């Protein structure tokens, strides 16, 4: 699969996962893809924790309510440090978003599925803080995203997207050539 194919093939997977472990080498490849992402002023504000220990996964799932990705044999938690890249400009969100997208593509390329769970864990009930505590995350980092990783039992659903013409143009707004 080339990169363009992986981009088109990737979709959010919210179904069940097969009970097959993800080898550490694959988790390392996925995390390395995340760390290879660009970052504003190369500040590299994104850090990652892969979780493949069933006891630790269980602890995480005990605080993720309602549950998501609970059958996945592994997961990657994305951490950010909201430091300024220059003057008062903080690019932490852009940095971790680029890292997450790289990881989602690597996940697909390696034959796994995932879903970008950020809204769910960063809502008012702050599931992310409970997860950070379980993973001994220091105070100056925030846990912002949870990516289950595993082999899917079913196919991801392809949501309806707006057409190319509704969102992309040439040379001027709303122009086709
Ligand atoms: C910043 C961000 C936060 C997201 N948070 C969640 C989430 O909390 N729960 C969820 O089910 N999907 C979440 N998603 C996945 C989106 O719902 C999904 O990407 C969108 O519906 C388009 O579907 P696709 O990924 O299959 O193309 C999130 C995606 C992004 C970019």
Automatic annotation (TrEMBL):
The keyword Endoplasmic reticulum does not apply. PANTHER family: NAD(P)H NITROREDUCTASE YDGI-RELATED, NADH DEHYDROGENASE_NAD(P)H NITROREDUCTASE XCC3605-RELATED. The keyword Oxidoreductase applies. InterPro entries: Nitroreductase, Nitroreductase-like. Keywords: Oxidoreductase. This is Nitroreductase family protein. Belongs to the nitroreductase family. It holds the Pfam family Nitroreductase. Residues 7-60, 68-150 form the Nitroreductase domain.
